[in-house]
């Protein structure tokens, strides 16, 4: 990977803040967009803007072709059996809500159990919480060890209770932990449970093969994967999507509507009510082209180098005054660097780093149950990506040393 060359593809990285060059280290929240993606969205509005599927005129047919072409591209990215297994949604949140709502109406009944984990993003917790009220499910959580990895013996104990669903993140947005999804899926299927995978933090960093993972449903967001905001993907096995009721009703998702009855289209159209985000879908397909053009192998090597550099600099400069959360960098983990600096609140760290042009995240990272497990109210998080450099990691820890000095006075 030629990182300096790649950086030229991301126009926002040329900006300065407070007179300092931007160091963007919040890609776990949202990634920056290459020019190719920005231009693809613009080109749709300039040349092909029409409502797909609904018009018999040439422009609408062009829009339909572009939209369905994007669906096919996402299907190839996921190694789906068919493009019809790909549903376009606004993001991972809507995808998981669609699955939870549908299963709550078709599969889950009062007293049934759903198993999740304490490291989940709220998007993979709150929708299941909503089903506690109706239909009245039980919700159980797998804990983590001090190394930031799931306690699979606890998973086995909960699986013995015969849950109907296991909902698990592929990669933790706080710890960087890469969960053994295939192993979890195999154990879940042995007791008849469906497996819902949150791949929002995985898709930007590693190839996804839904068949090899053993997932039943999987979701990811375009905006974390170099793509536009407001577009995401729900993938589901075709036989499951066919049985899943829609979560929204409206135009285009119906087969027939009468005053006394309604029938729905086959998937994926059943789940795409209203005018779709065609430009977003096209932008996402271009983003996947770009990402695969970079190459996941080179990306993984680059991110491991940045992660090791961060750990080295943390220990050199702060020793036991800093706590780095998650598995050690020599294991299978992603470049999500959550940390606590003794005596300094994460919000103060983020504010002072911002004055140096460095953008990191602070807070509970939409993972409050995990914060409770870790015994912290909040954490600082730096999440580098393909466009970040070793020098930027060094500058992060130089600036952190300055933050520490401010609070030592």
Strand order of the largest sheet: 4-10-9-8-7-5-6
The geometry reads as globular
Estimate the helix proportion, in percent. Answer: 25-40%
CATH arch. level architecture of the largest domain: 3-Layer(aba) Sandwich
In this structure, how is the largest beta sheet organized? 7 strands, mixed
Structure in a nutshell:
This protein is of the alpha/beta class. It has helices at residues 3-7, 35-47, 58-78, 92-106, 126-133, 152-159, 181-190, 210-213, 238-241, 278-294, 296-318, 346-354, 368-374, 390-408; strands spanning 16-17, 20-21, 23-24, 86-89, 113-117, 138-142, 165-169, 194-198, 217-221, 232-236, 254-257, 262-264, 322-325, 337-341, 358-359, 361-363, 379-382.
Keywords:
409 residues, Aspartate Aminotransferase, domain 1, Aspartate Aminotransferase, domain 2, seven-stranded mixed sheet, 40% helix
Protein architecture, described:
The chain is an alpha/beta fold and 409 residues long. The chain contains 14 helices and 17 strands. The chain has two domains: 3-31 and 295-408, Aspartate Aminotransferase, domain 1; 38-292, Type I PLP-dependent aspartate aminotransferase-like (Major domain) (Aspartate Aminotransferase, domain 2), CATH 3.40.640. Helices cover 40% and strands 16% of the residues. The strands form five sheets. It has a seven-stranded mixed β-sheet, sandwiched between helices. A hairpin with a 2-residue loop joins strand 1 and strand 2. The longest helix is centred in the C-terminal third of the chain and has 23 residues, at 296-318. The protein is globular, with a radius of gyration of 22 Å.
């Amino acid at each position: 990977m030629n990182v300096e060359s790649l950086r030229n593809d991301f126009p926002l990285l040329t900006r300065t803040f407070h007179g300092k060059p931007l160091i963007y280290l919040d890609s776990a929240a949202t990634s920056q967009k290459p020019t190719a993606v920005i231009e693809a969205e613009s080109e749709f509005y300039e040349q092909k803007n029409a409502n797909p599927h609904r018009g018999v005129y040439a422009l609408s047919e062009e829009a339909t072709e572009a939209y369905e072409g994007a669906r096919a591209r996402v299907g190839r990215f996921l190694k789906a059996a068919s493009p019809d297994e790909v549903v376009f949604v606004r993001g991972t949140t809507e995808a998981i809500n669609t699955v939870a709502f549908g299963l709550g109406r078709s599969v889950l009944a009062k007293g049934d159990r759903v198993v999740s984990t304490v490291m989940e993003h709220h998007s993979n917790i709150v929708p299941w919480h909503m089903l506690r009220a109706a239909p009245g499910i039980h919700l159980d959580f797998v804990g983590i060890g001090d190394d930031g990895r799931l306690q699979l013996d606890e998973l086995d104990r909960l699986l013995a209770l015969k849950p109907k669903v296991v909902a698990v993140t592929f990669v933790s947005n706080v710890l960087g932990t890469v969960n053994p999804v295939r192993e979890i899926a195999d154990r879940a299927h042995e007791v008849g449970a469906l497996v819902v995978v949150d791949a929002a933090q995985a898709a930007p960093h590693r190839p996804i093969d839904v068949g090899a993972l053993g997932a039943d449903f999987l979701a990811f967001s375009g905006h974390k994967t170099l793509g536009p905001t407001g577009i995401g993907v729900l993938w589901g096995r075709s036989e499951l999507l066919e049985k899943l009721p829609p979560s929204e009703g409206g135009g285009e998702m119906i087969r027939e509507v009468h005053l006394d009855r309604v029938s729905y289209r086959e998937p994926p159209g059943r789940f795409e009510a209203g005018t779709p985000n065609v430009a977003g879908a096209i932008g996402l397909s271009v983003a996947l082209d770009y990402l695969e053009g970079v190459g996941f192998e080179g990306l993984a090597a680059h991110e491991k180098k940045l992660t090791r550099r961060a750990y080295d600099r943390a220990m050199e400069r702060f020793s036991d005054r800093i706590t780095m959360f998650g598995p050690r960098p020599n294991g299978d983990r992603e470049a999500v660097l959550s940390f606590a600096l003794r005596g300094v609140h994460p919000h103060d760290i983020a504010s002072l780093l911002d004055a140096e042009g460095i953008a990191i995240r602070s807070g509970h990272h939409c993972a409050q149950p995990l914060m409770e497990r870790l015994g912290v109210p909040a954490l600082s998080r730096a999440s580098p990506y393909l466009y970040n450099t070793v020098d930027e990691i060094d500058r992060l820890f130089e600036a952190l040393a300055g933050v520490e000095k401010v609070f030592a006075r």
